[in-house]
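Q: Convert this sequence to structure tokens.
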Amino acid sequence: MEPWRTSFFYRPDVIAAFLDDLGHPRVQLHLDLANMVDRLDYADPRGLEEQVFGLLGDRISAAHLKDLRWDHTYLALKWDEVPVGEGVLDHAAVLEGLSRLDPDLPCFLEHLTAEAEYVESFARLHRIAAERGLRFLPRTPRRG
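A:
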């Protein structure tokens, strides 16, 4: 299941409680930190990241890697999904958290507007990983 801030399923403690109550080992979290940030987390997303990996790390089965920026030109609160490195999320912390999980955990980018944004986001993620001695594994087809 993927969190989304317009539903009940976006706060780490609520997600953990829901998964505990459900009690089914095949229902896991598709991590999307950008979907979990609320107005209180925006100034300190590191606290959210720590809470997510502390409470939910063993339940993460895939992850969206993207970034989030507050568009201050709107009267109401408006978030924009932006290329990695152009928002508030700490991707070094995210990659370090993910590195402690299944090494074959799929990671995706989504909702960018141009191919060049995907290319730059992937390049930034690989640079961040390399700076920390981490790396992405190439995807291999599964057989059978």
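The CA atoms of residues 3 and 52 lie 11 Å apart.
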